[in-house]
Amino acid sequence: MPLNYHIREMRQEDLTEVTALEASCFSMPWKYKDFEETLTNPDRVYLVAEADNPETDTSDRILGGCMLTNAAGEGDITNVAVREAYRKNKIAAALLTALLQLGAERYGMTVFTLEVRSGNMAARRLYESQGFVPLGIRPNFYEKPKDDAVIMKKWLALERTETVGVTIQN
After folding, report:
1. Residue 169 pLDDT more than 80?
2. Which residues are CB-contacts of 39 (< 8 A; sequence separation ≥ 6)?
3. What is the sign of the dihedral through the CA atoms of 42, 68, 152 and 133?
4. What are the two backbone dihedrals, phi and then psi, of residue 20, each rounded to the nearest 5 degrees?
5. Beta strands in 52-87 (DSSP E)
6. How many C-beta atoms surround the C-beta of residue 72 within 10 A?
7. DSSP string, 72-136
């Protein structure tokens, strides 16, 4: 049976499950309060991939998620996570696509940056397939275990041009 899900912004009732997702994917996860604060921060948005028909276990309702922070007009992408049982279903790619679109529409962003563990080749391939390019290394950025971060950036192509009308008066 195909995996059916939709992507939406995180809500209050998602916090416990999002916090559990984060803990299952990262060695230094964000806490409940961190995600809760995201709900009221106008410069942050966390998207979730929610199963259309979750299994009887309601802890499988949120399949994945990712965060966007508006950092002086540029998008900072963090906390990209997908439940291990649901990986290789293109959920992370769908979340990133939705996040890029939201950033462009809501904040007018055309530049997005993220960091990824140097040893996480699956994530690096995903980001490269989404148009991100490696720009540099942050040595010892990650702990538990120690690892460098690869800094990756994506520039959105300008899909349309707008003409600014100027009227010169005599």
Report:
1. no
2. 10, 11, 12
3. negative
4. -65, -40
5. 62-71, 74-82
6. 6
7. TTEEEEEEEEE-GGGTTSSHHHHHHHHHHHHHHHHH---EEEEEEETT-HHHHHHHHHTT-EEEE
Q: Quote the DSSP letter at residue 165.
A: P
Residue in this structure with the two tokens 């966390």, named with its chain if needed? 46
Q: Which two tokens stand for residue 113?
A: 């940056």
Q: Which residues contact 13 (CB under 8 A, 6 or more apart)?
A: none
Residue with tokens 């994945």: 64
29 band by pLDDT with thresholds 50, 70 and 90: very high
Domains (range + CATH), the chain: 5-155 (3.40.630.30)
SS3 content of the chain, % helix, strand, coil (to 5): 30, 35, 35
Write down the pLDDT at residue 72. Answer: 92
**pLDDT band at 78, cuts 50/70/90?**
very high
Residue found under tokens 């965060």: 67
Q: CA 162 to CA 102: how far, in whole Å?
A: 20
Is the N-terminal amide bond of 145 cis, ω within 30° of 0?
yes
Cβ-Cβ contacts under 8 Å for 101 (sequence gap 6 or more) = none
- Mean pLDDT, residues 158-167: 43
Identify whether the C-beta of residue 10 lies closer than 8 Å to the C-beta of residue 46.
Answer: yes
Cβ atoms within 10 Å of 76's Cβ, excluding its own: 18
* Residues 104-131, mean pLDDT to the nearest whole number: 95
